[in-house]
Structures
1.
Amino acid sequence: MEKSYKRFNLVFMLIVALFVTQITFAQDVSSEKKKLNQVNNQIKNVKNKLNKNKKEQKNVSAKIKELDRKIDKAEREITQINNEIAITKKKIDTTKKELEKAERNIDEKNGILNARLRVMYKNGNVGYAEVLLDSESILDFLSNLDMIKKIFQQDMELLAYMKDKREEIDTKKKTLESHKSRMLAMIKNMEVKQKELEISRGEMNRIKQQLQKDSKQLEAQIDELNAYAEKIAEQIRRKQSSGKYTGGKLAWPAPGYKRITSPYGYRIHPILKRKKLHTGIDIAVPKGGKIVAAGDGKVIHANWLGGYGKVVMIDHGGGIVTLYAHNSKLLVKEGQRVKKGQAISRAGSTGMSTGPHLHFEVRKNGKYTDPIPWVK
Ligand SMILES: [Zn+2]
């Protein structure tokens, strides 16, 4: 009785322990899953913001282009009008000279006529006395008188004609001047308009720069959130990973390609240019080269993963996870069981990569380890 009671007690305690452990496990993972969901939602939100930002950038760029076009058009028009003003100015100068000449001619003619009139007045309206006194006969006198009248009339007519001509030139000059002042006013307006356009363009450029700055921040935020999500996912995987690792040595993940271009450990990152832990090994594999599972296990990730590009992650049990990054094509699906040596992807250069290669990681309980001892 005593013995069986003890045994019962032990079994009961074991059951309770198992139950508690499982509850603890379930609770832990569910809280992390909840956190992961939140982070994924945050990523979605930020991505939406980024999309909106990119759309706005496109709109603003289109507006800037349109403003540039308008400014160019205004500039061309101003140049054209300026040319016309220059031509008009020349025309005005010419007309001015014509007018001066016409006035001089009129003055001259007036002078001659005035002199004649003075002579006529002095000689008691008989007119042109000197000419008349030179007449040799009465007939001569009459014909001379007639001639003088005619000349005088002609002189008057010529003067009237000259005055008409002067009026005509003056009108022409006034027309040109009003044309010029109209065009000057036009240019003033256009310059004001152009300034306004340039101010708008400046404002648009400022908005665009702000948008670009914002989008960079949003992108950085997405990167950060992705890294955080990956960390949480890793925690979940670690907690869900059960049993002991029994797989032994791992297979070389890129059969036929032996050259390691970058070992595990601290190095200057080829793209980021700062000292960073290289979390795996890089193996030179051409695009399309076959990548295989390093051991038996379950595919826990087969999708794009930030800087890793297209990635396969395999859980081999006991907290051992292998990762194959920068693939061009994935041949397995999440949840699928794979065998050691089974083709899982084709090599490539997706994500943060300078050229086709396989980045291979071996993680133990979520921590990066040097893959070399695992595959040798
Ligand atoms: Zn690498």
2.
Amino acid sequence: MTDHIEDLISAYIDYELTEEERKLVEEHLEQCLECSALRNDLLAIQNQIFTSLRPIEAPVSLEDKVITELKMKVSTSRTRLRKWFLVPILTVLVLFVIVAIFSNSILFNLSSILVKFGFNMIYAIGNVLGAEPLMVLSMAVIALVIIITSGLSIKHLLKSKVIQGDSI
Ligand SMILES: [Zn+2]
């Protein structure tokens, strides 16, 4: 009796052997109870896997549905993203208007605040640093509000991203 062919049985079952190897395995299986028992076991396992993993036919429209759904998700998440980036920017703008009113400076011209935004920012910082403690305190509160608002919008962004990821 030649050596057992355990290593080849799995490949034999999966039709991965050459014609020559196949013949050798079949000859051996006819004479060897041990190897033919192993082949039967492997076939049983394979059958079990195939029956438990019965393929399900996907509906023809599935691909189109998935693509449409994904396109919709991408566009809605983009608008949501834009909207939430506006919140901190608008907050900063509103706060600068408030600072302009409180500081009574001619440099803070409300009509040109958007055009002179960068310019005004430098003056606002300068004004606040030179002003009384109440001004510094109010600026600290404003900064805190900006940080909290930004934090909340980032949190919202992350949350909406996670929900999106889950549903895909
Ligand atoms: Zn054998």
